[in-house]
Amino acid sequence: MNKEELYNLAFQLILHSGNARSLAMEAIFAAKEKNFTEAFEKLSEADNEINAAHRFQTQLIQAEAAGESFEIPIILIHAQDHLMTALTLKDMAREMVEIRQEINKD
Questions:
Q1: Catalytic residue among 16, 54, 78, 82
Q2: pTM listed for this prediction
Q3: Is 78 a catalytic residue?
Q4: CB contact burial 23-56 (16+ within 10 A = b; e otherwise)
Q5: Per-domain residue ranges of the chain
């Protein structure tokens, strides 16, 4: 994998992770407005974005497992940070939506 491919992979990770993070926040805001259908739809969309990010991450892992060696650019480390933040926020958002849903059951 050349440097350009690594940069492209990093930008895809950032894109999909950022989308997932934004959708998780939208889910929290929807739950706050007691719109639980929308909240769970946003969480599902966030899951799809995380899955897309994981596919790009898997490309890197498979290349390394196949014996490919490359220098890791800082942008790739930054992309991994984005992915981990998005994963954490998505998990917390799901919990927050479910708690709000429980509280608002009549």
A1: 78
A2: 0.91
A3: yes
A4: bbebbbebbeeeebebbbebbebbeebbebbbeb
A5: 3-103
